[in-house]
Design brief:
The protein is an alpha/beta fold. Helices cover 41% and strands 13% of the residues. The termini are far apart. 39% of the residues are buried.
């Protein structure tokens, strides 16, 4: 049995499912396979909150149409949870608790037997307190169960012509805020404005890390050379300041997911 058939069999065995669907490659693959294996007994659900970056909902809707998945949205209110706003190292646990509580309630109300996530085998190598919340709510992770890492997920997504097969990861906006800094709607909105401004300038792989009045910009490896040009750097800095920051720092090392989970000395800045 090939890997796609294995995944279809694993998803098919649950009988019916709601898929926690962000529109990223992992959840898109699970949603696409669920649509194939379960048909109308599957539903892709996207959670909408102030922590969702601009454009992500439209992207999720577009992917759902392309893969033929039934899709709906729900609103989540993780900001109502004091432990989430406090932004300790277990912030994702409280975020996912809100998400999976809402999805589980929807599944029960609509008669779906299971909630599926797009967690993959590579996720167990990073700090992922959200997986504990998933366990507490009985969420299944078919990619993780089959030992599929990100590279294999992208390969399978390409084979199914899923539009988000090569989409850069885009976790919630709160992931840009250092642990211990309170998560506030105004901060999330400022980060969102800054990242949207950079995307409008043509940057594709990026993060704007929030350090009070300072924005620390991390760019993909293919985009770092671009801002070594003084004019391009000045345009970038003006865009970030227009979004509400006072100071802009640009990391010299390429963007790497999970930067705020890494301890130790700060990463170096770009030198011009």
């Amino acid at each position: 049995m090939d890997r796609l058939s294995e995944l279809e069999a694993r998803v098919g065995e649950v009988g019916s499912a709601i898929v926690a669907f962000s529109g990223g490659v992992d959840s898109s693959l699970v949603a696409a396979v669920a649509a194939r294996a379960l048909g109308e007994r599957s539903l892709a659900v996207t959670a909408v909150s102030p922590a969702l970056a601009s454009g992500e909902l439209d992207g999720a809707r577009s992917v759902a149409r392309a893969i033929g998945a039934a899709h709906q949205t729900i609103s989540t209110d993780e900001l109502a949870r004091a432990a989430y706003r406090a932004n300790g190292r277990d912030r994702c646990y409280h975020c996912k608790t809100e998400l999976y509580t809402s999805l589980s309630a929807l599944a029960e109300a609509r008669g779906f037997s299971t909630v599926l996530s797009g967690a993959n085998a590579d996720d167990v190598g990073d700090w992922r307190p959200g997986l504990r919340a998933a366990t507490e709510h009985g969420v299944r992770h078919p990619l993780l169960e089959l030992g599929m890492g990100k590279a294999e997920v992208r390969d399978l997504a390409r084979s199914l012509r899923i539009p988000s097969a090569d989409k850069p990861a885009s976790p919630c906006l709160a992931s840009r805020i250092p642990y211990g800094t309170t998560v506030e709607p105004s901060v999330l909105a400022r980060i969102d404005r800054a990242e949207l401004a950079l995307r409008e300038l043509g940057y594709r792989v990026l993060r704007v890390r929030h350090f009070g009045e300072t924005a620390r910009v991390e760019l993909g490896i293919d985009e770092l050379d671009r801002i070594r040009d003084a004019n391009a750097r000045a345009v970038l800095e003006r865009a970030i300041i227009a979004a509400g920051y006072t100071t802009v720092e640009i990391g010299a090392e390429p963007f790497r997911s999970g930067t705020l989970n890494r301890l130790g000395r700060p990463l170096p800045l770009v030198a011009i």
